[in-house]
Design goal:
Shape: globular
Number of helices: 22
Largest sheet: 6 strands, parallel
Structural class: alpha/beta
Number of strands: 13
Bound molecules: iron/sulfur cluster
Radius of gyration: 26 Å
Length: 519
């Protein structure tokens, strides 16, 4: 673990004068409004910062209770408000960028078609990619699953006597439990993406595929850094914190034995791959040490270099509402005197490819737009899903890893379809969420009580006369039942809502009385 940052002691907050709010030298203004989140103001939000709500409790293979963790997140109003506003801000920026490109829908269709074509010829393009990468001087490995991926990387590091590894953000390595594995074999891993480093130091998983620490207030980050790199616990100025982390991590980067990156796109015709970042950290991870290892999911391959432009135009606009990522780095082969290894990882992807209703989820380019727009995700935080992938894309990917453990997740959606509308590669996300619900019922992976309730509802709804009699009885009873009978632990719906007053007349009886004769 890094040492306390003595060099930061007594250092004042560094803010450009134009960003300072009157009366508060540390606050940040944007568009005349004081920012209230981790990217914003520097004074304490209140005397005692709100405690960060933690993610879902994991109990082995038992179904993750997303609703329970979401309720804890919602019960932390500063976190919930910041999270909701910050992600909605990204969604609005995405919309502005989208409106600036007249051919946006064509781009989406093209991206979707390229991905569909590639996925239906995946074996062919993977072999082409491998052959071209090898001819570029890259060593190519294949990993069937997470365990094999971790062992292969460990083997490469062992061959080089490497004891420390710097890496840029990669959801695939999160999938593989890579950091925990490396810790178990005595190799130090240092994340170089700021958000991911914050999460690593806090021993938490990323809560978003693009902005891993988006659920944290700046006071949470100040607490983590004061505990791990020795910053002033009372100083939550974002510039101070970012510089502290830069100063603490830079020496570790310079001394690392090996570097690791993920991959956004692997180009079959050239055997090259592309990593998109906003901090330049992938370039440091790839270029400072002589040994570069890239972990690549097999679905990342695209046929030709000319296809890259389609995805690059969509990716950052959909993710952060910016025209481009700051860095779009192309890796062609090992640096002079160095070595480059690629690990092509399956980890359930081939199996997913065979699922007729769910295979198009492999088109995902991990932009996070579906998360930013999802009302459930925005208000419950990514860690409430208790899985590598959260939000709408998580709901359709996670059950492919473990249907029992993630059986509750497809129900954490209002099926409003906004995720599908914003997806740059046109995945029918909300339809797949609904399909997963059916699939989980078929596989007996829903609680017995829910199954029994659905069965009873089905029976009732299929008998109009019985349904109308039940409604009449319920309306009569609701008017007289004491509150505790209606609002109790069995009525989750009523926790945050009032049951409406029963109408004097149902629509059906009104229709019969007023229009019945006309039909
Ligand atoms: S499913 Fe679509 S919107 Fe969601 S992360 Fe993947 S590409 Fe982006």
């Amino acid at each position: 673990m890094s040492k306390p940052a003595e060099h930061l002691e007594g250092r004042p907050a560094m803010l450009h004068p134009e960003l300072r709010a009157g009366g508060d030298p540390d606050a940040i203004l944007r568009g005349g409004r004081r920012l209230d989140h981790a990217g914003g103001s520097s004074g304490p939000l209140r005397a005692e910062p709100e405690k960060q709500p933690r993610g879902a409790k994991i109990h082995g293979n038992r179904p993750v209770d997303q609703a329970e963790a979401a309720a804890r997140f919602i019960a932390a109003p500063e976190h919930e408000k910041m999270h909701d506003e910050r992600l909605w801000d990204l969604r609005q920026k995405r919309d502005r960028e989208m409106h600036g490109i007249p051919e946006w829908e064509e781009l989406r269709s093209l991206a979707s078609a390229i991905k569909e074509h590639t996925l239906t010829h995946l074996d062919q393009y993977l072999e082409q990619f491998e052959a071209n990468a090898r001819s570029n001087g890259i060593t190519v490995h294949w990993a069937r699953d997470a365990a094999e991926h971790n062992q292969i990387v460990h083997g490469i590091l062992k061959d080089h006597g490497a004891k420390s590894l710097i890496k840029s953000k990669s959801m695939l390595t999160e999938e593989c439990g890579f950091r925990a594995y490396m810790a178990s074999v005595g190799i130090e891993v240092i994340e170089t993406d700021l958000g991911e480093r914050i999460q690593q130091l806090d021993n938490e998983d990323p809560s978003h595929v693009v902005v891993p620490a988006v659920h944290k207030l700046r006071t949470d980050v100040a607490e983590v850094f004061s505990r791990t790199i020795g910053t002033d616990p009372g100083n939550s100025d974002v510039h101070y914190l970012a510089e502290a982390q830069r100063d603490a991590t830079r020496p570790l980067i310079l001394a690392a034995d090996a570097g690791m990156t993920g991959c956004n796109f692997a180009v079959a015709e050239t055997g090259t791959f592309v990593v998109c970042t906003n901090e330049g950290n992938a370039d440091l991870s790839a270029n400072v040490p002589k040994l570069h290892i890239a972990s690549i999911g097999i679905e990342k391959v695209i046929p030709r270099l000319e296809h890259l432009g389609v995805f690059v135009r969509l990716l950052s606009r959909s993710a952060l509402g910016s025209p481009m990522t700051q860095y779009t780095s192309h890796f062609r082969g090992p640096r002079v005197g160095g070595e480059m290894h690629i690990v092509l990882v399956d980890n359930g992807r081939s199996e997913r490819l065979g699922l007729s209703e769910f295979w198009t989820s492999l088109k995902c380019i991990r932009c996070g737009a579906c998360m930013n727009t999802c009302p459930v995700y925005r208000r419950s935080g990514g860690l409430s899903y208790g899985a590598t992938y959260s939000g709408p894309i998580g709901l359709i990917i996670d059950p492919t890893f473990n249907a029992r453990k993630y059986s509750n997740l497809p129900f954490a959606s209002s099926l409003n379809g906004s995720c599908t509308n914003v997806c740059p590669v046109k995945i029918n996300i909300h339809e797949q969420i609904y399909a997963w619900r059916r699939e989980l019922v078929k596989r007996h992976e829903v609680p017995l009580a829910k199954k029994a309730a659905m069965k009873a509802a089905g029976e009732l709804l299929s008998r109009p006369a019985a349904y109308r009699a039940a409604i009449a009885m319920a309306d009569a009873a609701l008017a007289h039942l004491p509150r505790f009978v209606i609002y109790n632990g069995l009525n989750a719906w009523g926790k945050h809502r009032e049951v409406p007053h029963p109408p004097a007349q149902t629509f059906h009886s009104w229709y019969q009385a007023n229009r019945g004769g006309a039909t």
